[in-house]
Amino acid sequence: MSIIGLPDGSRLTFDGSCPNLLETLEQHKYQLNYHCRAGFCGACRCKLIEGQISYLQEPLAFVRKGEFLPCCSVPVGDIKIEIPG
Q1: Do β-strands 46-55 and 67-68 pair in parallel, antiparallel, or remain unpaired?
Q2: Can you tell me the distance from the alpha carbon of 13 to that of 65, in angstroms, rounded to the nearest whole number?
Q3: Which residues pair with 13 in a beta bridge?
Q4: Closest Cα partner for 71 from 17, 28, 26, 6?
Q5: Residue 15 scores a pLDDT above 90
Q6: What is the C-alpha separation between 61 and 5, in angstroms, rounded?
Q7: Average pLDDT, integer, range 1-16
Q8: CA 4/CA 70 separation, integer angstroms
Q9: Are 54 and 74 in contact (CB under 8 A)?
Q10: How far is the C-alpha of 1 from the C-alpha of 61, rounded, in Å?
Q11: CA–CA dist 63, 65 (Å, integer)
Q12: Whole-angstrom Cα distance, residue 62 to residue 30?
């Protein structure tokens, strides 16, 4: 189980009941842009502030340093992220 921290102070739990971070965020009613849900388009790109993620499959979309795609990743321990507004 991992904790996902957000800039507004919210803390969510990633317990493995959802297959990836995107679905966990959606389950908690956070709105993210997305198109492919598989790492091809990069529309769901978020900023990783602290911690580490692991990709379930390596994304094909370009990802800058400090960014990640929640559609194809899971946290490795506790993380802090920023969702684009």
Answers
A1: antiparallel
A2: 25
A3: 3
A4: 26
A5: yes
A6: 24
A7: 95
A8: 12
A9: yes
A10: 27
A11: 7
A12: 23
Q: 28-65 burial, b for 16+ CB within 10 Å, e for fewer?
A: eeeebebebbbbebbebbbebeebebeeeeebebebee
How far apart, in whole angstroms, are the C-alpha atoms of residue 73 and residue 26?
A: 14
Query: Per residue in 40-62, pLDDT tens?
Result: 999 999 999 999 999 999 999 99
pTM: 0.93
DSSP labels, the chain:
-EEEE-TTS-EEEE-SSSSSHHHHHHHTT-----SSSSSSS-TT-EEEEEEEEEESS--SS---TTEE-GGGEEEEEEEEEE---
Angstrom distance (rounded) from CA 24 to CA 21: 5
Residue 72 backbone dihedrals phi, psi, to 5 degrees: -135, 30
